[in-house]
Amino acid sequence: MESLRSPGSRHVPFSESERDAVRTQLERMLANPLFKNSKRYPNLLRYIVEQTLEGEQEELRERTLGVEVFGREPNYDTNADPIVRATAGEIRKRIAQYYHEHGHEGEIRIDLSPGSYVPVFDVPAPVATPAAVPPASLVPLPVPRNRYMPYVIGTAAVLFVAIALAWLRPWVPRSALDRFWGPVLDSDSTVLLCVGQRHFLGSSPETAQQSISDLPQAADRSSGSPPIITLFKLYYQGSQNVAFPDVMTLARLTGLLVAKGKSYHLRGESSTSFADLRDGPVVLVGALNNDWTMRLTGAMRFSFERENDIFWIKDQRNPSTRNRGVNYATPYLQLTEDYAIITRVLEPMTERMVVVAGGLTGYGTMAAGEFLTNPAYLEGIAKLLPKNWERKNIQLVIATKVIDGNSGPPKVVDQYTW
Asked: What parts of the chain have a pLDDT lower than 70?
């Protein structure tokens, strides 16, 4: 059996000393910033290395890794949830970056070949030490002229370029979706998904309190006594309700976060505090029903405005224009178009990255959610954004056609970066 100490060998080590050498190298790699600032990458890399060292590499399949490393159900859909493939792809890039850094040339190499979850191990060849030459033999000898030398040099140059290109393959450009969500996904903190909620229905202007006696009534300010809320009436509380379009948007966003291996937690707008917004990246879903969205976007170029039944997206550069608006007195089946704002900004008050997906109605919110999770839409807008847009704050205004109560594809009608 070939020894791990043989130069350039790629095989499964079996001796205890070989296992120890690979484990030492693994810990050295996982202590590097390329790995130590993540939870997913070290967990998967450590698992597949250990399984291979123990001769269990036959078990390293996508579904098994999803269950054993990421806690997925045994029958989970690997196509809908590609967390193993995505994590392995990122590990390959980071391995290449690690060994490209100066100082790692003489280390054992742990590699993960494309299309495989079984790692391979390389030992660099030792540098040959020139043999001692007796002084008497140090006589200059004539160097024979080789007419083939130019061809040899040319071939070597071509091989060098080919090797360099193969080495640099892991640094393929990130997709527009990854570049947009990078500041959120790269954070060490859990993502907060804050969804909008209706106000207390008993005092909300859209409820018919006189005809629906089951709704809880607002507190009597003169007496100072709060109303009694029974379990039955609790279901009519705004804090217990989320609009269906917002649920659809949440489903898209949580699916994206799961696919990227990012942990998250959900909160309603009414139960989200300013301290919660400072804990990590935040995604705000909804606009007119989400006070945090209204506060955040209020001072930005694009914001939400209302006058009586008319709601519109205000452009600070053209504040008198209301062409991107919705009349809430319109029968919902007669609504033909809706608008939404997508915002990604480093919020100065919380010093956290915030993403907003909110529409004038639920149709706009769903269109924003579709845009934010569809790579094709983000690739399209990335071509129109300025250089290094992924490092800037962004606002996009989205329009969507509405036909018989169903929203159509999202379309960007305005944009702003700063």
From this structure: 1-14, 124-173, 199-227, 232-239
Contacts of 26 (CB under 8 A, 6+ apart): 45, 46, 49, 110
- Among 317, 321, 323, 274, which Cα is nearest to 295's? 274
Angle (deg, nearest 10), helices 83-100 and 244-259: 40
Cα-based distances in Å from 71 to 63, 115, 261, 329: 11, 22, 11, 48
| E strands, 71-222, in order | 109-112, 119-122, 191-195
Query: Is the distance from CB of 415 to CB of 385 less than 8 angstroms?
Result: yes
**What is the chain's length?**
418
**Using CA of residue 79, residue 83, residue 88, residue 94, what is the dihedral sign?**
positive
Structurally, the chain folds into a number of domains equal to 2
Provide CB contacts within 8 A for 19, sequence distance 6+: 13, 53
The residue segments making up the domain with residue 90 are 16-122
The C-alpha atoms of residue 413 and residue 367 are separated, in whole angstroms, by 13
Contacts of 316 by beta carbon, 8 Å cutoff, 6+ apart: 300, 301, 302, 303
pLDDT tens, position by position, 1-22: 344 543 344 445 568 888 888 9
**H or E element in which residue 401 lies:** strand 394-403
CB atoms within 10 A of CB 294: 20
Task: Give the rounded distance of the alpha carbon of 63 from its chain centre.
Answer: 21
Distance CA 354, CA 342 (A): 10
Q: Is residue 272 part of a domain?
A: yes
Q: Count of alpha carbons within 13 Å of 183, Cβ hemisphere only?
A: 19
Query: Which residue, 56, 91, 122, sits at the end of a domain?
Result: 122
User: CA 384: distance to chain centroid?
Assistant: 21
Same domain, residue pair 268 and 361: yes
Are residues 331 and 309 in contact, defined by beta-carbon separation less than 8 angstroms? no
Q: Establish if 158 belongs to a structural domain.
A: no
Q: What's the pTM?
A: 0.55
- On whether both 279 and 383 belong to a single domain, the answer is yes
What pLDDT score does 151 carry? 60
Please report, for residues 325, 334, 339, 351, the alpha-carbon distance to residue 330 in angstroms, rounded to integers and kept in the order given: 12, 7, 15, 40
- Encoded tokens for 271: 């139960």
Distance from chain centroid for Cα 248: 19
Last residue of a domain, one of 76, 97, 122: 122
* Rounded (10°) CA dihedral 7, 9, 12, 15: -20
